[in-house]
Amino acid sequence: MTGTMTGTGTLIRLILRRDRVLLPVWIVITALLPASIASATTDLYADQAARDSFAAASASNPAQLAMRGPIYDASVGGLTAWTLGSSLALFGGLISILLMIRHTRVEEETGRRELLASGVIGRHAPLAAALAVVLAANLLHGLLSMPALVAGGLPAGSSLLFGLSTAAGGWAFAAVAAITGQLTASSGTARGIAIAIGGLLFALRSLADTGGIGWLAWLTPFGWVRLTKPYAGDQWWVLGLIAVFVTALAAAAFALSTRRDVAGGLIPARPGPAEGTLPGAFGLAARLHRGTLAGFAIGFGALGALLGVAARGLNTQLDTPQFRELAATLGGAEAGLSDVFFTFVMYVLSQLVAGAALVSALRARAEEAAGRAELLLSTPVGRLRWALSHLVFAVMSPVLLLTVLGAVAGLTFDGDVARVTGATLAYLPAVWTVAGIATLMFGLLPRLAAAVSWTALGLFLVVDLLAEFKLATGIILDLSPFMHVPAMLLGGASSPAAPLLGLTVVAITLTAAGLAFLRRRDLMPSA
Amino acid sequence: MNAAVHVGGLVKSFGRARALDGLDLTVKTGEVHGFLGPNGAGKTTTIRILLGQMRADGGQVALLGGDPWRDATELHRRLAYVPGDVTLWPSLTGGEVIDLLGRARGGLDPRQRAELLERFELDPRKKCRTYSKGNRQKVALVAAFASDVELLILDEPTSGLDPLMEAVFNECVLREKRDGRTVLLSSHILSEVETLCDRVSIVRAGRTVESGTLADLRHLTRTSVTAELIGPAPGLATLPGVHNLTVDGARLRCQVDGDALTAVLAELARAGVRTLTTQPPTLEELFLRHYEGAAR
């Protein structure tokens, strides 16, 4: 048994060195969030009556149920756990997937693992090192969140359980990614499969909580992290369920890794055509984008269907005084309840669409960084033509995705496809603006393009959260393009032209500036 | 205009680092030109400027009679390029990439494509993600050799090929030359340049330190002489042009400047020669001589 784990310590140090910025930032932010949400909750809902009425409103709001699940207890702790439980599991799960693939499959795909494997590194060491770091980082932010919660007056035991349950989401998906990293030779596919599994498991939890099929929640890690019920009975033993899940998947991943070659996958690569018919830069771009785009379209179609079905009969089901009040503040007295619901959910989904648009908008930079653009641009394909071949997809993919989302939601809801699609398409200029930021950075500071664009989208999401908890006003909220989108279903349709036109002009300006900078600068492969 | 590439006093900086510091390079139409230098000498940067992917900070650049930055698209119709580190689209097959590049360059000869695939022993149905470095290089080479272009720019094209494939590569370059095409071949593999190139430019630290035919450059260097003598040759030590002379009994070694060889051989003959070995300078020695300065 000498050896399959040899070198794990060295590899752990390598991972810590490579992620010396990312890991601390993620851990600290995640550790601080619970206490800050707890204090915001205390400020916003000063007494038990206020918290009860908020909880009642949320419990009858399917959008909230779908995103966050039921509220188990309307205490400050209970509301904090409800607000963050699902989001932190999603966030931690996503980061854990990205980190796991980055330190396992990407290392193999780029050939770096081969270099290491020729040294004194055991067969299982790379996987063990990646798992150790990601599991420990999740545990750390879970533990670190506890002191501040306790200092804020929350019970210590429940706070520890809450911290550990926020870590559990990351654990579960680190284990999932450990397996998908063994399946295919492509890191993109491994990442995609893991994220798709995550999406499916989240949808399962949503369905359990909106459809009243509670037992379904027991089948998904997103259910478990809530079912630990911190501040609401503290079901510690649910953590054991998660531990069993993680151990089983990790063991399976190690078993799989002994059954394949370095850089190989369990799913063998199939031979393809010996001759190509790609008609040039645009044909190539279409080929590169089509898989991702089709995946996104199916995903948003499914979300639309879920949304439409959930909104059916909402007008009667949701007819509680609390929700009426919420609807009135958002959309005026005569706003339909389902319209308020749609508007609320669309706001969140539009930012997911923006994420999809970013993937397309940053594709050209990815091509450049990998050195593939260099080869293509040595042919008569001009630089602008090449950039436009990818930009077309950044511009058209949100059109497609918002249309699919609106059309399917409209169809499954009340059949009024035009009205709902109009509401979803209203987000187009805001999404284009996010893509425009990516194109500007691609032209101006290509090496930072991905980091800056994703951070910008992240900040817009934070602005949302701040707005929801009324922690920011005025100019800060104005920074997010999504804040300027008229709510088409709630009377915003009366004068939508000015904000939409304004955002479109901003998006076009950003994009044009990015292309102008691109024409002037040197090509910068990352090597 | 009979120069396919004309570069004079080329300057390019990245931040504070000066990658090119007055580099000169002239490639005559129809010749195979070796572009030699160690890693980091500025070869790839020069090529990227020639391809219009980077803009020079100073100096003149002319490629096929045009400005590589301004006329990039037009000029690229007339050239094919193989990067030193070939990265390809992981989800496309080698065949698809060859046809994509060929089509973009205005079409390729299907007969040549098939022949090259066979000679390079490349399976075009495999996804690029599964290719080794050498196989990715073959994809780019097949696409370049099968294109009908005037100029081939090859940046260390054999770094991933095994010796057998290197021989195939050499034949391909010589055929391109017979067909009247111009080849700019960047390399730090000296034997390859010796076999293929008509003229050579040697660069170091962003500057051209030597340029000319191999014969020109040999003229500048020393021949190694090893001899076993019958009698003593006392005059040798004082002859001009003799370097690093060591005598071990009857055995003698030294390095001799080209123009001093006649005098040295006369001196040896006077002493009487039992065995004699002379070695022409290899490019390794040329290199060592030029990079001595950098190492110091």
Automatic annotation (TrEMBL), chain A:
Residue ranges crossing the lipid bilayer per the database entry: 21-41, 79-101, 121-140, 160-181, 193-216, 236-256, 293-314, 340-362, 391-413, 425-445, 457-477, 497-518
Coiled coil: none
This protein's UniProt keywords: Membrane, Transmembrane, Transmembrane helix
The protein's name: ABC-2 type transport system permease protein
Source organism of the structure: Thermocatellispora tengchongensis
Lineage: Bacteria, Bacillati, Actinomycetota, Actinomycetes, Streptosporangiales
TrEMBL record, chain B:
One Pfam family in the UniProt entry: ABC_tran
SUPFAM superfamilies cross-referenced by the UniProt entry: P-loop containing nucleoside triphosphate hydrolases
Highest rank taxon of the organism: Bacteria
Location of the protein in the cell: Cell membrane
Membrane topology, from the record: Peripheral membrane protein
A cellular component term, taken from the record's GO annotations: plasma membrane
GO biological process: response to antibiotic
Keyword field: Antibiotic resistance, ATP-binding, Nucleotide-binding, Transport
Residues of the ABC transporter domain: 5-230
Record-linked InterPro entries: AAA+_ATPase, ABC_transporter-like_ATP-bd, ABC_transporter-like_CS, ABC_transporter_ATP-binding, DrrA1/2-like_C, P-loop_NTPase
GO terms of molecular function: ATP binding; ATP hydrolysis activity
PANTHER family: ABC TRANSPORTER ATP-BINDING PROTEIN (PTHR42711), ABC TRANSPORTER ATP-BINDING PROTEIN NATA (PTHR42711:SF5)
Family to which this protein belongs: Belongs to the ABC transporter superfamily.
Protein name per Swiss-Prot or TrEMBL: ABC-2 type transport system ATP-binding protein
UniProt source species: Thermocatellispora tengchongensis
